Amino acid sequence: MRSEIKSLEIKNLDVVYGNGGHAIQALENVHLKMVGGQCLALVGESGSGKTTFGKACLGLLPESTRIRGSIYLNSEKIPYEDKKTLQEIRWKKIAMAFQNGAATLNPSHRIINQVAEPLIEHGIENKTGARVRAAKALEKMGIRSDAHRRYPHQFSGGQAQRIQLAMAMILDPDVLILDEPTSALDALSKGLVHRVIAEKKSRGKVIVLITHDLEFALKSADTMAVLYLGQIMEKLPAQQMFSNPLHPYTLALKRSYPTMNGARDLGGIRGDAFYRTVHQHGHGDEKDSPHSHIQVPESSHKDGHAPPTGCLFQERCTQAIETCRHGHIAFEKVEDHDVRCIRRGIVTMLDLNGIKKKYGSAAALHPINLNVKAGEIFSLVGETGSGKTTLAMIAAGVLYPDAGTRFFEDRDMDNWIKKDYKSLAGKIGVIYQNPAESISHRFTVREIVAEPLKIHKVFKDKEEKEKRVKACLADVHLSTDNAFLERYPHELNMGALQRICIARALVLDPSLLIADEPTSSLDPSVQAKVLKLLLDLQIKRGLTMLFVSHDMGLVRKISDRIGVMFQGQMVETGPASTVLEQPCHPYTRLLIQSARGEFSSEMSEENRTANTEGCSFASRCPHRQDLCTIKTPSLRSLGMAQVACHFPLGAKDPGP
Amino acid sequence: MHGKTVKDLKHNPWFLTGLSLTGFFFVLAMVGPWVAPFSPWDISFNPISPPDGKHLLGVNDGGQDILSELLYALRNTITFGLLSGCTALVSGVLTGVLSGWFGGLLDAVLMRIADILLAIPAIMILILTAAVFRPSPAFLALILASITWPTISKAIRAQTLTLKNSLHVKAAFQMGAGSWYIIRHHLLPEMFPLYLIGFAAKIRMAMFMEASLAFLGLFDPSRKSLGMMISYALNYYYLDIWWNWLMPPILCLSLVIMAITFLAISLEDVLDPRLREAVMEKTP
User: Fold this and answer.
1) What does the alpha-carbon distance between residue B77 and residue B228 come to, in Å, rounded to a whole number?
2) CB A432 to CB B167 under 8 A?
3) β-strands A544-548, A512-516 pairing
4) DSSP A283-348
5) How far is CA A96 from the centre of its chain?
6) Cα(first)–Cα(last) distance of chain A, in Å?
7) How far apart are CA B130 and CA B209, in angstroms?
8) Which of A348, A425, A356 is nearest to A391 (CA)?
9) Which of A8, A350, B38, B252 is deepest in the core (most CB within 10 A)?
10) Distances from the Cα of A439 to the Cαs of A247, A426, A448, B146, B196, in angstroms?
11) Coil, strand or helix at A377
12) Quick one: average pLDDT of A249-265?
């Protein structure tokens, strides 16, 4: 074995299956470099080219496949044309454990023989020696010795997968490619695989983990590469997969994955993954509509073909703009990620900075910051009177802050409001707490939903307008027949009214939806329906949502990120899972405990005294110290969250 | 208007009474000159004669047919009421909505004017104008309207201020609606019941005022009016003419005013019961 650092480098790898009009681009321009002691996880939906990548590394792709680019193993190019050398390298230097273990094992041989086979093939051991080593390897993977002489069909899927692993590792290769090693494994067996990977890493091996199990990838891998339709969309440190994804696809993928810490309802990714036919030149310059915001992705790609030009993810992306449709999307460095996105990853939709607001002499908002990224659901929580609604309405552009700057889609909002409020208003939809009051009782359902269209004079043609109204009503699962359209609000129940309000907020296809306690006036069963609806719409339309609520249980179900407000200040903000599972601010913990029904008298509202200096929560805080009553804490980073507390809970170094 | 409202109204006895009475008097006023058996200025009949087949209500002291006179008088009174009521309504609603919605200087100026006008007793102004300038009845109606609009304006303004803070107006504003859109689609229709009340009050007041002025003899004596008829009839109260000469104009005036009141009350009731209580105190 060589002593130098092991590495696997892939340069400009292109893989095309088949030929002619039906050729399918499986991988495009994949560029990766892995060094020994590291594990790279390739993640992505099925059909994204993960397995193709593994097979390409081993030279196992069918003859007819067109492959371009080169792969270097320990800085030496692998000669795929030279079958003999390849045979030598395979298993010995680079090995792969295949997905679906049972099917890839030979059903007519005992497993012990199959595992031992590479040892004999490569002439490393004789039959007996090989069996001994194979038995050891199998036992290490948790297959007991009395089962070694069985045939593959006598094993469960999970066991077969572990046998595959044992086989791949039997020659102790430098590069180990694991294709979905955990897909058939239960949580405990996953631990075994994790330990094996950790052990290999410590011995300086290169591990390529092909998986859709994000949580496992997060635990085992150092780097993650997110593959979509054969292109790497983002390469990021594995730790940041859940906390700081930069590419919209990574975020969507993360959202689809069930984790133990996140309580948010699973989202999906709108549209379906396409398959990609090879680019046909001269086909790419179709004229597109002047919309800067891509609508629901059914329209142009019904046949399931990926977009011919521009970003592959454009049709499903929540922040696609016109330029995403054309030209080459480069892979560039953003923070410590590499992102293939023309907009340099997920953009900030709303950015409020140092916002102050006073009502008379009472300060409703102390300088407060808020930023909401495109495609996410940001929840503002806090008790009544904490300034949530004020902040939301400032974000909506209907209230004016006393100080601070507001940016929406990178444009100065105050300026925008002065110049052309209407165009801004069309981009922000608002749902109010009380649906019955937020609509005029003199309007019919049709008039209510069509009102924004009327104000913005979107359609001159009545039929088109009607069509849009009906489409929106259908989106919120309401009837679209004329009898219903002619009804008046007082004839409808609250749930239907709130859905009408949602339809009205969406009829102009806004990019930001601000929902101010949208379900607090509804009973639980209706609330569940409305929330489900909002989440579905969020995925379908790629909306960014600012959600205001005092209900922690509800926020837990829908948020990507949470901001906790107390007396006009943001006391804690961060990813929903972090804030809810490991609250750093005592107030956040109080909110969570109260939501669980654990009321504490010490921290209750009555215990409050007015204090002008120091932390506004100090008088109610069980952890207060002298500093808290003297100095006002400012927001500082703590792990993935930001917290405004001198002595945050669970912090290793208390105090600034 | 809501489809349901119409259905509700069909079963409302107040509304039905009011509508049939108003309709009856309105039609009577319209067709009066054509159905009147004689010209009211024809003095060729036997003065102060009781009703008979030819003169259904008899003849007055001037030798004129009382029925014909009544029909012409009714027409004059109703026209005066409508003209004054409409003018007061339009100016009241406009000033009320504008000062409520835009506020600021406009509001301050309009409302100070309104306050001044509210302090002036309408009847005094009318008597003085009529006596000194002897203007046409139409001009008097307009003068009356110019004094009576503030009550409507104040009520509309108050309601506009309330509506301004209501969520559906805020929502419309958030959607990007301009002032005119909101005034047209959210404020004006919303205050419909308020107009009815204001309108009815002003018409009632104007008709009563017209009768009073005529009673006082401040109009051209040749102009037929219910007030003047009452006034002349009273001169002969010692004769047995009260039932055929004095009664008809008094009855007509009372019934018209009652009918309009019924109509207003029932419409308010059906259109928006909540609003009625709020507004009743504001409209005298």
Assistant:
1) 11
2) yes
3) parallel
4) -S-----S-SS---TTSTTTT-BPPSSS-TTTTT-SS--GGGGSS---EEEETTEEEE-TTSSSPE
5) 28
6) 51
7) 12
8) A356
9) A8
10) 38, 18, 7, 36, 23
11) strand
12) 72
Average pLDDT, chain A: 81
Set of chain B residues whose Cβ sits within 8 Å of the Cβ of A430: 171, 174
Residue corresponding to tokens 């079963």? B11
Q: Within 13 A of B57's CA, how many CA atoms are on the CB side?
A: 24
Cα–Cα dist A68/A199, whole Å = 34
Helix (H) or strand (E) holding A463: helix A462-475
The DSSP symbol for A516 reads E
B172 interfacial to chain A (CB closer than 8 Å): yes
B272 touches chain A (CB under 8 A): no
Please count the CA atoms within 13 angstroms of the CA of B6 that sit on its side-chain side. Answer: 3
Rounded Cα distance, A238 and A446, in Å: 49
Q: Which of A126, A119, A120, A116 is nearest to A148 (CA)?
A: A116
Residue at B234: amino acid letter: L
Residue type present at position A137: A
The percent of residues in chain A predicted with pLDDT above 90, rounded, is 3
Q: For chain B, what is the radius of gyration of the CA atoms?
A: 22
Please give the C-alpha separations between residue A23 and each of A61, A65, A250, A275, A327, in angstroms, as whole numbers. 15, 9, 27, 10, 22
Task: Give the 3-state secondary structure of residue B115.
Answer: helix
pLDDT 10s digits, B121-163: 888 888 888 888 888 888 888 988 888 888 888 888 988 998 8
Beta bridge partners of residue A27, listed in sequence order: A15
- Maximum alpha-carbon separation in chain A: 91
Instruction: Render pLDDT for A590-648 as a digit per residue (tens, 0 to 9).
Output: 888 888 887 766 555 554 555 567 787 887 787 778 888 778 888 888 777 888 888 88
Partner residue facing A437 (CB), from B166, B176, B177: B166
CA A299, A305, A310, A314 torsion-angle sign: positive
Give the residue among B196, B205, B259 at the shortest CA–CA distance from B15: B259
Show Cβ contacts of residue A401 under 8 Å, excluding neighbours closer than 6 positions.
A352, A355, A356, A357, A365, A394
Tell me whether B134 touches chain A (CB under 8 Å).
no
DSSP E strands, A180-278: 206-210, 223-228, 231-237
* H or E element at residue A179: strand A175-179
CB contact under 8 A, A452 and B176: yes
Check B175 against A421: CB less than 8 A apart.
Answer: no
Cβ-defined contact of A442 to B2 (cutoff 8 Å): yes
B170 touches chain A (CB under 8 A): yes
Whether residue B177 and residue A442 make contact (CB cut-off 8 A), yes or no, is: no
Kindly report the nearest CA distance between residue A430 and chain B, in angstroms. Answer: 8
In percent, the amount of chain A with pLDDT more than 70 equals 88
* Torsion from C-alpha of A568, A573, A577, A580, nearest 10 degrees: -40
- Retrieve residue A533's tokens: 């609806």
pLDDT in tens, B149-199: 888 888 889 889 988 888 888 888 888 888 888 888 888 888 877 787 788
Place of tokens 């921290």: A603
Least confident of A37-41, A594-598, B85-89: A594-598
**Other C-beta atoms lying within 10 Å of the C-beta of residue A207:** 24
- HEC sequence for A400-426: CCCEEEEEECCEEHHHHHHHHHHHHHC
pLDDT tens profile A467-488: 888 988 888 888 888 888 888 8
Q: Looking at the complex, does the CB of residue A283 fall below 8 Å from at least one CB of chain B? A: no
Question: Rounded to whole angstroms, how far apart are CA atoms A157 and A146?
Answer: 18
ipTM tops 0.95:
no
Q: Which of A321, A325, A360, A315 is nearest to A343 (CA)?
A: A321
Cβ(A588)–Cβ(A572) below 8 Å = yes
